[in-house]
Structures
1.
Amino acid sequence: MFVQITKEEFSKEVLKKAWYQTNNIIWALVFLYPLIGVVDYICAGDVWVQFVIVRIIIVLLVLGFYTVFKSNKYNYRILLHCVFFLVSCSSAIFCNLVPTDHLQIYCLVYSALILFFNILVFWEPVHSIVQSLAALVLLSVFFNTLNSSSAEDFIDNGGQFFFIVASLSCLIPGARFKVMEREARQQLQIEKSNEQLKLQNQDIVEKNRIIDMQYERMLKMDEQKNSFINIAGHDLKNLIGSIVMSTNMIKEDEDRLTADQREFIGYITESAEKMQYMLNKLMDVKEIESPELKFNLEIFDINVEVRRIFRGLVETAQMKNIALADNILKLPLNVKLDKVFAGQVFQNLLSNAIKFSQTNNNIKVITSLQRQKFVFEIIDEGIAIGQDELDMMFNKLQTLNDASTSKESRLGLGLSIAKLITREMGGELFYRSDDNGNYFRVEFNVIN
């Protein structure tokens, strides 16, 4: 995750960490500096009380400076310089007032204070160098004014330790400053990353809430859809049942009917029974919430079924002055399929071919046996429907809009159903629309 940090944000984070370290230095000094009075009691002789009083005064001054700088949000570096100067002044005075045999202890204490300060402080190394130089200057000034011994004695009795520690401890703040700056940057990156993660989490929660709402809406819509299918399905069952009942009543007086009337009644009865069969199948699928149809497989001559569909659509084609060319094999070809649904596939393809074709056109219906497969073909050499529109009709179950008002509305539901049924029964359906016209092809395995 990429996190961008501005200079202002980084400066605030560094200042916060600097004040945290400054607080540690101040309060550690407030509690520890008076405790050095134990050393004064042991080593300072008669003046140990004055030394302790000075230390207490230094602590009170440090607390006063700290309170003023903290409340007014002054620069922490100036506060540390003031504190270090007070400690350096008192320590330099103590080193030059104690007897020579105890000088080494006070130089070590002074060195420890400088080392402690440089270990904890968070500032640029140049400030530590300034403070070390100031400590050396103060020590030299008070040596000249308060100490009667020689410089060699002072150096031999602990002064060398002080000079070494004061010089080397200046190197610590430089490395520490870089480390703490890096820590401050990393801390800021972590905080900003956490903020971004919180925002992203809130966004995810909100999106999940929207998804849950949409899911609930879809469930309600699904319930409404199921209710509509139930109502429509039962109403259609009643209507189809009425048609079947009426045709059966007419058949009772079959002797009074002409041959053509009996043929038409046969078509009506057969169509109504097929509609009833398909509706029952679809209702069964809906009731068990299953995406699969259960076919009633039977062995039959598929050429006979195609010829029956062909004859049923001849008059529909004649109404548009379209000539249907019969190239259906006379040879029996047995298949094991659901006869009703197989017939529906041929019905949908041929009726749509007639529907989409222009008037005064020829459409060929061909069946053949190729590589142990029954092949059903429709060849329309008229104006092409368009490959894109065929793709939509066969795959997306949606209505195609056509700018030409002379052409019929192209609803792709029947073709989509034909493709679905063909695939579910183990067949294959192909189609093509180009400059040569429109072409449809269905293949099913035949039985030896």
2.
Amino acid sequence: LLAFLRAIHELIWGLVLLQVLGLNPLVGVLAIAIPFGAIVSKVFSEILDETPQAPLKALLNAGVPPLSAFAYSLVPQALPNLLSYTFYRFECSLRSSAVLGIVGAGGLGYEIFLSLQSLRYEQLWTGFYALVILNGAVDVWSGVVRRRMGFTSRLDINRQPGAKTHLSPLAHLSPLTHLSPLKAPRQDWLLRLSWMGAILALPLSGWFLRLDITSLWAPRTQRLLGDLLGTGLPPLPSLAELANLANLAWLTVAMSMVAIALAGLFGLIFSLPAAQNFLLPGGLLRPIGQNGGQNGGFALGAYALLVISRLVLLVSRAIPAPIWALVLLYVLFPGVLPGALALALHNFGILGRLMAEVNENLDDRPVRALSALGAGPIAVVAYGIWPQNLGRFLAYILYRWEVCLRETVIVGLVGAGGLGRLLTEQISSFDYSGVTVTLAVFVALTFAVDAVSQQLRGVLRE
């Protein structure tokens, strides 16, 4: 059940819920909550499975009740990863809320969509700036909170259970870490303020959106849901329809593969200057005592490159893939290419930031040993940095490939080709039986890619 819920993108959930609930704020909330809840459940279960089980078994053997044993053994060990992934998923939900604006759910995404349709480019850029500022503020806030709590990575996948994280010796130079106090997290005023704000934000958001959950079981909702389910039972597709679905399915997979390959390649390149412990004076590529490493001009250039590379990654990931696709469709012809480029641009920003965090947290002892032996920057990267981090980089790429395949359907909805474009035609013609068949093919594709990705990540973890 969870696999089915997470296989369908939140934009598709939004379109379906729109047919049942109409223009209701609950459409956007439920469209994000349903697939994200399934994704979080899956990732949480994987985190708990990879947590060392010895303390749990010891408590169970001592006669402690299972629930208490779970709360006092697995949860404290897994808490850093659980909270870090929760922050990451919150950032993703912020971008998804902008995506849902395309189907009329309101917000910045809807304003950007209207600006594109009316060719008001000054308003379009204003919407882009607002998205970037909003995502940047959330990124900085989550980074500060995670650092204060001692969590160094927002998405710590493919790490061996019990493996330690090595902090960079330049951690004190980070704008996120210089705020970290020496006192316990519970005494941190910023953490207290953050938790109080998060607790208050939930009821305030519900009040601001004027959510009315009674509409979920209203007679009109039940009638529309029954009509939708009644018209969604598909007949057996013909051979011609199956051939067309197979061709579009291949185009969808090819789009996701091209997109994730480009995103992974450029993310790998940008992760070097975007990591704060690389080019700054005293960093891995410019150790203390190296000629030219400490002069003011080089230091200023290193800081400028750090800021520019992080800004590029922020802009790239702050703008959702379907909005990138809408912009690219104004420049390129409709087809697979603008869809692949839109997905690549968005995932490039996410992968580049995740890879930069991995670079910041790597064990720097082998790298500094190479530098002490006279190795140049290229040799340090090729023989000291990438061998340590390549496994986790590939794990991130495979993880994002699963997400990228889900996102192919939404760039297809705006005319970028693949199964998404067929889905758009079927929805606009109220062909709900065809929508059911197309979604079934898409869910099967998602399951296949998910299984392949899990197997490959398991091999990398060994």
3.
Amino acid sequence: MAENTLQVDGVIRVSPNLHSNGSTTESTLPLTFFDIFWLKFPPVERLFFYELTDLTHHLFHSVILPNLKRSLSLTLLHYLPLTGKIKWPPQAPKPAVFYSPKDGVSVTVAESSANFDRVSADDIHEALELRPLTPELVTSDDFADMVALQITLFPNKGFSIGVSTHHAVFDGKSSTTFIKSWAHLCKSLIDEDQQSPSLPPELTLSFDRTVIKDPTGADVSFVEKWFGLDGKYSSNSRSLKVFPTIGTNEGFVRGTFELTREDLKKLRNRVEEYYQVKESKNKLHLSTFVLTCAYVFVCMVKARGGDRDREVIIGFNADYRTRLEPPITSNYFGNCVVTKVLFLKAEDLMEVKGVEIAAEKLSEAIKGLENKGAVEALEKLFCLFGKVEGIQFLGTAGSNRFGVYETDFGWGRPKKVETVSIDRTGSVSLAESRRGHGGVEVGLVLDKNEMDAFASFFNQGLKFV
């Protein structure tokens, strides 16, 4: 192959091994108002890089690939709805997931000549380099797939697993649990030679949609709201295509930055000391998430520069599983997140005490999350769609609590995990530090000049914390 090329060896469809005697009975999984809110959002795309310096073509095709395929088939037994498609029957008030025993998940098998060490490094590199390794999730007017996978060989270096998931079916916790379930079953096949391994309780999920109460019919209301927006992008108001995203600019670069436990401790002390001097009576919620976002967002606003009077919108997703009344199981599979939005001015974050201001605002927002009002909170967000002129949006993808670096398929933990889709959403990705010790990895995609400015603010700022 030529330098930095991708050769697709084939696209296969992996189905659950049901032994169903040819049954084609179709089942349905309803979409709740939590799911419908994300119906038109672009897919979430992640890459897991695994380093194996002795990985030959023979080893990949005779050991790695067969075990991944077999364990995926076993995993789908526990995730049957993921084999189907989102469809919208003519007389139905809203779309739903339809699946049957004959369905399966698309898996692309490929080989790359790209530099494995570069694409899996923290160093700043072209954002477009990860795109060929990422599978495309198919959505159309009539249907939408829920997950697409790609397994890519880097000869004598390792392999990557690319995962694209539909946001109307997966929130971050659900997609992470799916990947971890696949990894657990694959590792059990290899390490313990189990023919029919089972999932532990923490990976055993519930698809019971009756636990999500919707007495006011918010699900159908949200569908109608999407109707109103769909005319801007499609003449078919029942189209299941996700909204188009801005393609990754060739001048954009990707980089990963780390806040160590010691960095976070210093940031916490700095914020606490500032509010002690102010004699503030409010007890701040200074979690790792709050401190990370406060510091990173301030660096991003400074790196953008420009009009200090511009509006800055900060958004983050809060898991509502334990905030609903009554609370639902933490193993609920599906969307159960609410996006909290904060409005600030760029000058607030450009101030000397910008980190302290951001930390206080984020702290107040998290403390103010209600165990009720999920529908109202999501409803308010529809008015923000299309509101982009002169505004800097700052959002997050992933979480430092997901434990993505625990995803071991049997050949060791990942060398690197990337959230590829931030190159189209503008969010920053969060993950626990793969080095352990309570640190956080932050991934960004920015214009090259803006990335250089961000790196300078990020690194220099930590010297004076």
4.
Amino acid sequence: MKISHRLVLAALGLVLSTAVHSSPLETLYESQDADAFFASAVPAAEAGDAEALFLLGKAHHTGQGTPRDLERAAGYYQRARQKGSARATHNLGLIALDDGHKTEAITLFQEALSAGLKLPTLRNLGRAYAPDHPSYRALLQRPVEAAGRSGDAYAEAYRLTSSVNDAFDASSQYYRAWFFARHAMPREHETFDHAALRERAVRWLRIGMDGDLAPAWTNYGVLLMEEGDFEAARPALERGAAKGVPVAHYHLSGMARNRDEALDHMERAALLGLRQAHRPAQQQLQDRYQDETDLDVLARAVERMDALREKSTETFVPRSLAQRLAWGRFVAGVAATAGVLPDRPVRLRACGLDLVQVYGDTFNLGANSAWRLVTYTRFDEATETGVTGRVDPRGCATSAGDLPPSVTTALRGGAVLALHFVNFTLPLAATVEPRRVVLSLGPVDGPRPE
């Protein structure tokens, strides 16, 4: 069985080593005057200066003043390391970590720590120890231990800095250790001290919560929710949601008291960038307004759907809300023309319905397809006229003569007339001729009912 979970985790990015007190050469590097820096650093490096070697490595590592070249950067770092540069050792660890070589990175970070470089080494050591999320519930001893070691590194950084963010990073990894152990297979599950793992995670979460750190409140709510204590989880998640944590909104959606509240939270999670919320947000919005008859409300729903699609760059549901809105506006527009058509007989002459013709090809129709003539005075409700027929060999739907007076009355009253087939309904357009009004098919890509 796979392990699935959603938690707020720290954004793990590149943290390069910098000097506490800048030397003249480092000040020159930081000034971004590339010509002056290289003019000073290159001869110093050739003479074996460890700082110059390190800074040249950093320039090639970051691409500052020269094209980014990790191979050259590593070469400079290695030479500086041999001369005792802890910062060079640390940055070699970063290169190894970014290449996916965690074991090598850990060794290098530990060497930098032993040389006295505590920060940012501890934070990057936390990154290196952090395990990938297990796919299955078996063999979780190592991920639990690795998450604990990652948390320990961040916790040590916190003891040096008192930064609530370091405490949060520690709590996130301690939480993961507890979570992995909790979901282990029964035999392995018994080998873990679950109470101790939980106590450690909660203790470090509380440091963030005491600092009103929204992600810490969110993760505490997730922990309580994982334990089934939804009543206690809700206020914790609400603290996170109030400060815009998307994961908090995501979980509150699942705890919502009604569908509007559920949609509101899921929509917020998606708009705040949570990828896992994009599909359910679009689906919930579609389900909520697919039967809406108020065009103003429907228009706002379409705007909200467009915002979700723009944020996700993916379309998970059909564009039926937009189609429904276009159809509703079309029907309302025709209704506004009531009384404009002259009082003349009405006939049906709608062609292009054979398979090789434009409407037949688009809607998979053809000769002998059955149709019914319907009217729409409301965009969400069709009324039968009793007029039926089949597409003739020429690809046309025609009336044998004039249509019944009731159809004429509906047309002059601002109703939309349409041909209803098994899977599609195609609106008709009225054309005034000298002796009658003729109904033919509207634009093939025009509005139509779902």
